[in-house]
# Entry
Amino acid sequence: MLGSFDAVLLARLQFAFTISFHFLFPAFTIGLASYLAVLNALWLWTKEDRYLELFRYWVKIFALAFAMGVVSGIVMSYQFGTNWSVFSDKAGSVIGAPMAYEVLSAFFLEAGFLGIMLFGRDRVGPGLHMAACTAVAFGTFFSAFWIISVNSWMQTPTGFEIDVATGQFLPLDFWKIVFNPSFPYRLAHTVTAAYLTTAFIVGGVGAWHLLRQRRTVYEANAATRTMFSMAMWMAAIVAPVQIFLGDMHGINTLEHQPVKVMAMEGHYQSHEGGAPLYLFGIPNDKTQTLDYALGIPKLSSLILKHDLNASLAGLDTVPDADQPPVGIVFWAFRIMVALGFGMLGIGLWSLVARWRGRLYYAWWLHRAALVMAPSGLIAVLAGWVTTEVGRQPFTVYGLLRTVDSVAPLDAPAVGTTLVAFVVIYFTLFGIGTWYMLHLMARAPGAGEPRLKDVSSGPIRSAGRTAAQDDAPQRSGTIRTEV
# Structure
């Protein structure tokens, strides 16, 4: 049965599967490493136990996510020499150096200081321990820097020449290769997405524990409250920044990869005098139409060119052989955008709750934050699909086609390894993810109630009426339970 599938498609599916698994872990650890560095710095500055409790709580989760990210990344990299050896041969002279720097300057920086970060607090002193936390945080950023640079070069290649005899890409200007036209926008957009991903996972965990403690008599759990508060601050501040960066990235993509934007917008036809923004539709590549389209007139022109009457070219100007699969790009882009605005909504909601003094008692906000906990992971995957599928049918945009990049392998061989990867990944990483969720299910600190559970309902402070107990509580107030 595997022989009936195309080897190129199977190789693409295998790479997509493995990189999707891998991408989830760095998307989480990039932000979490910075969060841990901030928590450690706050503890050194204030000596408040809540920051140390949160550091100890999240550092275990970080170590597990980091380990799974390393393992999944090693497996993925081997495919450059197996399924994509032709691409590696042709582009290796350009992308080899940045990928090597990612290993040397980032991986060793992260792994080298991770042990001190995990176990060195009482052995090396607070100063060196803080330096190790900072080094791990910078290491995760540098790792993203080099990998995104490589990916961006594949999207907007510069600083090279092509050997006519061999078809190999030869470097001419290293810094033009690194800082290619789309790299600054892609780096800012991706790293900010990682911070939002971490914020919503941390916020979701905090919301989970706040909801669990509604009918249980605890001493005020300062660590849980601090966790949720910091996450909501990040959501409120970073979500609008991310939307702005996404707009800038979209304009850059329109300049350098207009076909991708056509697919994202569902523009099969060119539009003179203003293009609509399609909110919904079913792309039909065969008929080159967007069926059941629902759009807002001229809004796409306003967003992309900041002019209601600006004309936008459509896929009718592009040969069929050079068009990406519009349906996948169209819907992946909308999932990403919808989740981005959902994150913005949670951030604004938290500001209102904070202003009213109800941040820790806004139960519907907590429920929404819990539901949105995986939204960052889904959004980064949707964004990756938009970027990578939108580049098709090229591996190096406009220069090297995907069908000319794959190794000469038979479909059954690629299909067999794909099935093996699916089984092994879901088994091993499924167990790791389950254990990570198990760690998150325990509250910071001891993870146990400090006073007895109350099954009959909440116990109010002595001398307080029900109306007084339900009154808004200022965020700095701690109720005394009896």
Q: What stands out?
A: Confidence is low (pLDDT under 50) at residues 447-482. Residues 225 and 360 are 7 Å apart (CA to CA). The first strand starts at residue 160 and ends at 162.
